[in-house]
Structure formats: structure tokens, C-alpha cells
Amino acid sequence: MTALLAALLALSACGGGQGAAPDETGAPTTAPLPTTGSATPPASPTPASTDASTEASTEASTEKESAGEIVLTGTFSGDPDLEGGCAWVESGGERYELILPDGYEVDISRMALTGPDGAVIAEGGDEVRFSGSEATDMASFCQVGRLFRVTEIAPA
């Protein structure tokens, strides 16, 4: 029995492992657990380079108005069969799913964008100017492109 107790005491003294020695107050200290890999998350990927023609077409159709506000001029379009009907603007070779301001609606059956007064602002294929910002805080329903939160709409 004494031998068993001595063995247990010896094992418990060794079982503390790295950093288990008491500090100046007599309290045991602990060491951080070993980790694998890097403690810092990987850096965000850098955007892929684009050729000059893509950059030129994007600059022509996307203007920065002020901090965070973007103006997209492009073709209003949509698909009545996609998720029950989805509308977007195609600008600079990219599609932006539209999040319209209160009062604005898309009649997907005739692909018409109407304002708060019910007047048609644009129909499918029309060039339209949308002001607003990219909505990075939301998930896409239609998944046709980036989400664009519209603040102002005008014919191009």
C-alpha cells in the first residue's frame, strides 16, 4: 500500500507537465496549450487582376459618388422563373441584385420597375441609373450577383 501511494504521489508530481511549477505565491501556474498552425487567421485574398478592357468597362458604368455610395448605370433585367421572380441591373459585365427602396416595385410578369406613384420608371432592357451601396450585410435570395441597396433610381 505504501508503495502504491508513493507511486501515485510521484506520478501526480510529474503529471503537472510544463509550467506546473508554483509561482512566487505558491499557486500552480499553467502553460498555454500547444497549437498547430498559425494563431493568426490567414489574410484576405487579394482581388484577382483584371485586364484593361474589363477595368475600362467597369469604370464607365460604375461611378463613386461619395464615401460608400456608388452609381451603377446598366441594363435593367430579370427572370420571372428564378426563385419566383428576380430583378437585377447588369453593369460593367456584372449583375447586381436590386434591393429597392420602400414604394418601388418590380412587376416581374411584365418586367417593369415602378415608382411609389405607380408610374413605370423602366422596363426590361432599359438603361437605368441606380444610386446606392453594396449590401454586404445580407444574404442573396436570387443569387445572381452582388446585392445592391438602391437609394435613388433614374432613367439613364
Description:
This protein is α+β, with helices and mostly antiparallel strands and 156 residues long. It has a domain at 57-155: OB fold (Dihydrolipoamide Acetyltransferase, E2P) (Beta Barrel). The chain is 15% helix and 36% strand. It is built from two helices and nine strands, in the order ααβββββββββ. The protein has helices spanning 2-14, 52-61, and strands at 62-66, 69-79, 86-91, 94-99, 105-107, 112-114, 120-123, 127-134, 146-155. The strands form two sheets. A five-stranded mixed barrel has the order 2-3-4-9-8. Strands 5-6-7 form a three-stranded antiparallel beta sheet, with no helix packed on it. The N and C termini lie far apart (93 Å).
Note the total helix count: 2
Kindly state the number of beta strands.
Answer: 9
Output mean pLDDT. Answer: 72
- The CATH C-level name of one domain is Mainly Beta
**What percent of the residues sit in helical stretches (DSSP H or I)?**
10-25%
Query: Kindly, what is the distance between the CA atoms of the first and last residues, rounded to a whole number of angstroms?
Result: 93 Å
The CATH architecture of one domain comes to Beta Barrel
What would the principal axes of the Cα set say about the shape? globular
Rounded to the nearest angstrom, the radius of gyration is: 30 Å
Read across the widest sheet, the strand sequence of neighbours is 2-3-4-9-8
Q: What is the fold named in CATH at topology level of one domain?
A: OB fold (Dihydrolipoamide Acetyltransferase, E2P)
Largest sheet: 5 strands, mixed, barrel
Low-confidence stretches: 1-23, 27-61
Give the strand content: 35-45%
SS-derived structural category: alpha+beta
Order of helix and strand elements from N to C terminus = HHEEEEEEEEE
